[in-house]
Predict the 3D structure of the following.
Amino acid sequence: MPEGHSVHRIARQFALHFVGHSVAVSSPQGRFAAGATEIDGRAMVSARAVGKQMFLEFDNELTLRVHLGLYGAWDFAGDITADATTASAGGRMGQTNQRGTVADGAGTRGENEGSLHSIGAPRRTRLRMSEAESLREAQGPDQDVFPPEPIGQVRVRLLTERAVADLRGPTACEVQQPAEVAASLAKLGPDPLVDDPQEGEERFVATVRRKATPIGLLLMDQAVVSGIGNVYRAELLFRARLDPYTPGKLVPEELVRELWRDWTHLLRLGVETGQMMTMDGLDPEAYQAALASRDDRHWVYHREGQPCRVCGTHVTMAEAAGRKLYWCPNCQR
């Protein structure tokens, strides 16, 4: 499932290329036809992410709420920017790139020659982003045609004169009234990139410190804190050297605060790089390798049975609320 950094990058893509423009909204698949008519032809006035959910507001006070879930993704095409480091992101966003690939030349700030930051994507360009991002050129005789024909089961198509975004397979996709948006937001825990930093920290600490639920489950609870998924959960706990089964109320307050601050740091880094980078202190060569491959990017996630990078103890995996939890039983005790 996409984690918070991906959804923030999606929102930035919309902020740059769709906000302020009239948007033709359709449902090529047909399943969202009624909702599409409510916002078709309206101007998008804001795009924001809160945790794993995104809210696209239109000038008739209606909002398109999208939760990608396990299988959802956005495909972008047109005159789009290919990097979200500044004002936006581009591409297909949803799942982590399981093959560990990264777009050619991608760096933290587009400093590499030919990096995505410096590419002005022509209309034949297609940018696909899950939790990672890839840039490709359309092939065939229709490669320069805009907009491109919808491919596959497109739930929603958002189209301006210069950009198009196709949504596939979301868990939630609905048009909401302002009161419904407020209700959706009220169910979500603080997001470091949305909430006031100090208020968000205090809210997170207070919630965790009154819960008997294991901290490994609390970090995945979107009502406790927004945006953390399976990867960030495992890595945050390792970085804190914290046993995932420790009840929240027994985690020292200062350590809970450190978790929030580290999540803030990792989330910002994820938005900047487009990768869930969780290892610090890497030399330039190791850093580039980590950007290119998940195997070199994480401390414990997806490393069951492999030696801990710190102590050499085999990394352990267990099922926790239906998700795989990874930790080092020696470092995290």
